[in-house]
Specification:
Elements (H helix, E strand, L loop, with lengths): L6 H20 L5 H8 L3 H25 L2 E2 L1 H14 L3 H4 L3 H27 L5 H30 L3 H17 L8 E2 L5 H9 L1 H31 L5 H6 L4 H9 L1 H8 L2 H18 L5 H29 L4 H19 L2 H9 L1 H19 L9
Antiparallel strand pairs: 1-2
Length: 384
């Protein structure tokens, strides 16, 4: 693999494509209450539009290495991005829930391929790797916010199909830009050794961290997925624009993710930072018991800021202790992360429907408390 700088001609295209990929992942989320009404489906069924896209994401980091050999990141992007654009078309015409669900599953198969290629392309930098990866991480968070906020705004102004038309044309523009992307060499995907994977999972330290990752994204995915329903409960006339803007807390996540290293050094260690982040995360979750919409908007900043601080610090910590197994360690990390997202985007909805919002919030808080309790006995390591 040739290590070269991303360069001025490559990085803007990577940023643009990354933002669009995460926008495509999260675009339906603020529209779930509207889609539930339009398609005459209940809350858990509507949430499946997010759940099905997490299924491939949760297995792709381990399965793609078995399916793919050596391929150029540029070539992977030039194939997967236009296919992701075409996968928006069912949302422009279909009115059958099953068709939309199938389209989302296809999108879930394509997005991991795109993100793998984007991350690999960005990592093929010389001299500016840290800066490029920081920009890439910030782009993923920006895309998560933009996908929700822009989707909510367009749906509020032009109808629920417009966000997907916007994505179709935007991804088409990204494809044109990708045709001019410089070739950075081959992408070698790790072929997992099942025996080595089991050895890693047998490590109690790593096992605790993978459980923590699962727990915090389980709670995050649940809150992100069902907050729109809560807002429509509190304000029946809540528009898709207002729901989309409720995700503005994501913007603080950009700052905490980029500043996680400095925060870690100030607190005196990665484990201390993760513990404090989880504590703030759990307390902000309890705050969602409020019935005041304005306070929910404020709490989202605290909630997202804590989540992305924990996320970025956990990722850094595992890469530091991963040794020569960084590829597998990261693959298991991503799999744990999105497996939590897959279950969190659906199962808590059953609790919400059966027992109401307060029990829903308390159950998520208990999941975070479990993560904090598992992490607490581990010894403290200083940041490097």
């Amino acid at each position: 693999m040739t290590a070269v700088s991303v360069g001025r001609s490559g990085l803007p295209t990577v940023v643009f494509t990354t933002i669009l990929s995460f926008s495509a992942l999260y675009a339906p989320q603020p529209l779930l209450p509207l889609l539930a009404r339009q398609l005459a489906i209940d809350l858990p069924a509507a949430s499946l539009l997010m759940t099905v896209v997490f299924v491939p994401l949760s297995i792709a980091p381990l399965a793609y290495g078995l399916l793919l050999g050596t391929v150029s990141p540029r070539r992977m992007l030039q194939v997967a991005v236009p296919l992701l654009a075409l996968a928006q078309i069912p949302f422009l015409f279909a009115s059958t829930y099953g068709v939309l669900l199938a389209a989302r599953f296809v999108q879930g198969l394509l997005i991991p391929a795109i993100l793998t290629a984007l991350m690999t392309f960005t990592a093929q930098s010389r001299g500016e790797l840290q800066r490029s990866m920081s920009i890439y991480i910030a782009s993923t968070i920006t895309g998560g916010f933009a996908g929700r906020a822009v989707s909510g705004a367009l749906a509020s102004w032009f109808g629920w199909r417009m966000p997907f038309l916007f994505l179709l044309f935007s991804l088409g523009i990204a494809f044109v830009l990708l045709l001019r992307l410089p070739d950075r060499g081959a992408l070698t995907l790790l072929r997992p050794d099942p025996q080595r994977l089991l050895q890693l999972l047998a490590n109690p330290h790593l096992r605790v961290f993978y459980t923590v990752v699962f727990c915090f994204f389980f709670a995050f995915a649940a809150m992100m997925n069902f907050l729109p329903f809560r807002l429509t409960e509190l304000q029946e006339a809540a528009s898709e624009l207002r729901i989309g803007l409720a995700y503005s807390g994501y913007l603080l996540g950009v700052l905490t993710a980029l500043g996680s290293s400095a925060i870690c050094n100030r607190l005196g260690g990665e484990l201390k930072t993760i513990r404090l982040g989880l504590l703030v995360y759990g307390l902000s979750l309890l705050g969602f018991l409020t019935g005041k919409v304005a306070l929910l908007f404020v709490l989202m900043f605290l909630f997202c800021g804590a989540m992305f601080l924990v996320h970025s610090t956990c990722s850094s910590y595992l890469n530091r202790i991963g040794g020569s197994d960084k590829g597998m360690v990261n693959g298991l990390y991503v799999a744990s992360y999105y497996f939590g997202g897959m279950l969190g985007s659906f199962l808590p909805g059953l609790i919400y429907r059966q027992f109401g919002w307060n029990v829903f919030v308390v159950s998520l808080t208990l999941i975070v408390c479990l993560a904090l309790a598992m992490l607490w006995p581990l010894r403290t390591d200083s940041c490097r």
